Amino acid sequence: MAEKDVTEKKLLDYADVFADIVNVTLFDGQRIIEERDLADALPRSVYKLDGKMHEQERDVAKFWKKNQLRISLIGLENQSEAEADMPLRVIGYDGAAYRSELNADKKGKPKVRYPVVTLVLYFGYQTHWNKARSLKECFDIPEPLEPFVNDYPLHVIEVAWLPDETIAKFQSDFKLVADYFSQMRKDESYDPMPDEIQHVRETLELLSALSGDDRFWESGKGVKEGEKFTMRSVALDKIEARGEARGEARGEARGRKEGIAAATMKIVRKMLTMKMPYDSIAESTEMPVEEVVRIAKESGLAY
Fold first, then answer.
1. CA-CA distance, 279 to 253, in Å (whole number)?
2. Domain span at residue 172?
3. Does the pLDDT at position 149 exceed 70?
4. Is residue 224 part of a domain?
5. Which residues contact 278 (CB under 8 A, 6 or more apart)?
6. What is the pLDDT of residues 206-231, one digit of tens each?
7. Distance in angstroms (rounded) separating the CA atoms of residues 8 and 3
8. How many domains does the chain have?
């Protein structure tokens, strides 16, 4: 679980990705925040409970700064499932940040006041976020008391439900992530975008952690530092290249009499399990669409 948590944070911690997410989800794609204006913030804070000190940790947090002045602290939280207590968690993170500002004053440091913003990135694609979206929704509040209970809204970004025109505004690798979950929501099939990946391993590891599809993780392990690929070439071709090597080593899958190589057959079947469109499979493997359809039927993978 700890390894999975770390994996989910690595891509979003890049300044270009972090700035891109905030600019698109909050500012409709305007480049309000530049990556050079972001500085790492400590994700951990401490609180006291039952006489003992406990730690709580955000997923990713950065300061937005201009001329060394802090404008805001912005946090991102990843959720693959809706969580009923999320408003309580977020107010805990935000409250700790404000307490840190207050403590800085008491230590004689220059008085600093800046707002704190937390965005919850929800990657579920089968249902909308169906849990509490505000602090008040976490409680059964007696009616006479309700006007006096302060509320605290939760800012949930439902990634899979972002409009196509919004996804098109992303300029970082998060565009590929959002596109994957959007496609899976629509028909549970995936036709990779041709865009080049900047942070290859981190993007694939994030997709693997959030989707539960280990093929992304496996392909990420084979990427060398500095290599550049598109989602299609890494997520499909590189996986199958390793599959071909393993298959040849074991002497498996010789292919059909028509001369279709064993590796190509594996590529086609793997793409079929991902429910890629037949014409996209044909284009990627330079195979007639009719042949793809035939393989799908014979393999029991037709759709």
1. 24
2. 1-188
3. yes
4. no
5. 289, 292, 293, 296
6. 998 888 888 787 777 767 777 778 88
7. 9
8. 1
- Quote the pLDDT of residue 1: 41
Provide the token pair at 48: 């006291």
Token duo for residue 96: 């700790």
Q: pTM of the predicted model, to two decimals?
A: 0.73
Give residues with Cβ within 8 angstroms of 166, minimum separation 6. 24, 29
> Which pLDDT score is estimated for 240?
45
Can you give the pLDDT at residue 49?
47
The mean pLDDT value for 160-170 works out to: 97
Burial class (CB in 10 A: 0-12, 13-18, 19+), 60: buried
Query: Strand ranges (DSSP E) for the chain?
Result: 38-40, 44-49, 52-57, 60-66, 69-79, 116-122, 155-158, 196-197, 229-230
* Total Cβ atoms within 10 A of residue 160: 19
212: in domain? no
Measured CA to CA in angstroms, residue 182 lies from 19, 36, 81, 175 at distances of 21, 30, 15, 10
d(CA 14, CA 230): 19
Residue type, 175: K
| Position 114 in a domain | yes
What residues are paired with 66 via a beta bridge?
Answer: 69
Residue 99 lies in a domain: yes
What is the overall mean pLDDT for the chain? 82
pLDDT in tens, 191-203: 888 889 999 889 9
Sheet hosting strand 60-66, strand order edge to edge: 38-40, 60-66, 69-79, 116-122, 155-158
The SS3 of residue 125 is coil
- Going by pLDDT thresholds of 50, 70 and 90, the confidence category of residue 43 is low
The candidate with the shortest Cα–Cα distance to 31, out of 126, 151, 142, 169, is: 169
